[in-house]
Amino acid sequence: MSTATETDQVQTNTCPNCQGVLQSTKLKAVLLFGAPGSGKGTQGKILGTIPGFYHSSTGDIFRSLDLQSEIGRLFWEYAGKGQLVPDDVVIRVWKQFIKGMEYTNQFHPEAQILILDGLPRNVNQARLLDDTLDVMKVIHLRADMKKMVERLRRRALKENRFDDANDSVIEKRLKIYENETKPILEYFPAEKIVPIDAMQSQIRVLTLILNVLAPLKDDMDKQAPK
Ligand code: ADP
């Protein structure tokens, strides 16, 4: 389990292509955490438009995969039933994706904080990401079940999300959230968890999140090499 001091340290490795230059390997990240329908995606998309932040949603990454590909098919098979995609697949796909974003100059780990939406989704995934992520804060968007089900039903119509269209699939996803995802809140140190009432208006929720992110970005900028 990571501790505040461990995660504050940036792990260093010798980069094979950098002739001995030390490269920082842990990505600074803030987790957007909450049940399906709590507003992670909506807030994450807005945050990703702010300079210094990079929004990454595993759901969006999977939905962008070619349906004919093996992983694309696997995703629809699991997501269609409201189940989680197997951990090893998720971690592999996400790592490849984020590396691709870095190589194509779309994600700048030295200057941007990752806003992770939908990852990790269980304690095992959190463990598997321990050597990759420096989790600065976990923003816990809290909303009541009734509101979340309402939002998911609305989203099914608006965004054509097949996994929101069926009440039994919605129920299954909320159950998985309770049983598998929520224990993540015990995995990270309590001082990193920031509960936010997600029943408020989007602008109010956004304001509260920005109050958390602004000082993190200030610190990151202070530490950046001049
Ligand atoms: P929501 O937050 O509404 O559940 P997402 O877009 O985050 O929607 O995820 C949609 C589906 O993608 C999930 O139900 C799951 O099948 C799959 N998925 C996304 N992220 C993960 C993950 N970290 N681990 C396993 N499956 C995932």
Can you tell me about this structure?
The chain is of the alpha/beta class. The protein has one domain: P-loop containing nucleotide triphosphate hydrolases (Rossmann fold, 3-Layer(aba) Sandwich). 48% of the residues lie in helices and 17% in strands. It is built from 10 helices and 7 strands. The strands form 2 sheets. A 5-stranded parallel sheet has the order 4-5-3-6-7. Strands 1-2 form a two-stranded antiparallel ribbon. A hairpin with a 7-residue loop joins strand 1 (12-14) and strand 2 (22-24). It is globular. The structure holds adenosine-5'-diphosphate. Adenosine-5'-diphosphate binds next to helix 3 and helix 4.
Q: Count of DSSP helices?
A: 10
Classify the secondary structure makeup into a structural class.
alpha/beta
Radius of gyration: 18 Å
Shape: globular
User: What small molecules does this complex bind?
Assistant: adenosine-5'-diphosphate
Number of domains: 1
In the CATH hierarchy, the third-tier topology is known as: Rossmann fold
The CATH H-level superfamily is P-loop containing nucleotide triphosphate hydrolases
Strand content: 15-25%
Distance between the termini: 33 Å
Query: Strand-and-helix sequence, N→C?
Result: HEEEHEHHHEHEHHHEH
Average pLDDT over all residues: 87
Proportion of helical residues: 40-55%
Poorly predicted runs of 5 or more residues: 1-23
- Profile the largest sheet: 5 strands, parallel
So what's the CATH class?
Alpha Beta
SSE arrangement:
Blueprint: H1 4-8, E1 12-14, E2 22-24, E3 27-34, H2 40-47, E4 53-57, H3 58-63, H4 70-79, H5 87-103, E5 113-117, H6 123-128, E6 133-142, H7 145-159, H8 167-181, H9 184-187, E7 193-197, H10 202-223
Parallel strand pairs: 3-5, 3-6, 4-5, 6-7
Antiparallel strand pairs: 1-2
Helix pairs in contact: 2-10, 7-8
